[in-house]
Amino acid sequence: MKNKNVKMLAEAGIMIAIAQALSYVTVFQMPQGGSITPGSMIPIILFAIRWGPKKGILAGAVYGVLQFILGPKWSFHPVSLIFDYPVAFGLLGLAGLFRNTSTGIAGGTVLGVLGRFLCHVISGVVVFASYAPEGQHPLLYSMIYNGSFLLPELIISLVVVLLVARAIKPVTGI
To answer: Full-prediction pTM beyond 0.90?
Structure first.
């Protein structure tokens, strides 16, 4: 049991580090935060698929805190600090809920990214409502803004996660 915990912690550290490194490679950077990367969510999603949602949520939350500490600061509002970082990235761990089939892995990945999206939308409505164009509801603005980078991130993540999960299934059993 002890060796399994050590292995899980080591894998969590490695996946968080890979995710952080990938987050520095931006294909497109949004003006008030958020970016399209070459798959920075993938390591957290794969970790959640391998170790389950509880450990995946914890690893994602740690990654979210690291994103805040090491990344650009867009807001210090309490709602943003909570919803844009540990909660949003922690919800990527939901990818581990349905990990036994390719369909489940795809659904879990979508669920995790959708959870992250909802957190950013909540933060956007509360913190960044003043950025909405005149006449546009802050909720719609936040959904469009956050969807514009998370939809491409979801597509990248889905493709890579499904390819990697298929390739490593014989070795890992996921």
So the answer is: yes
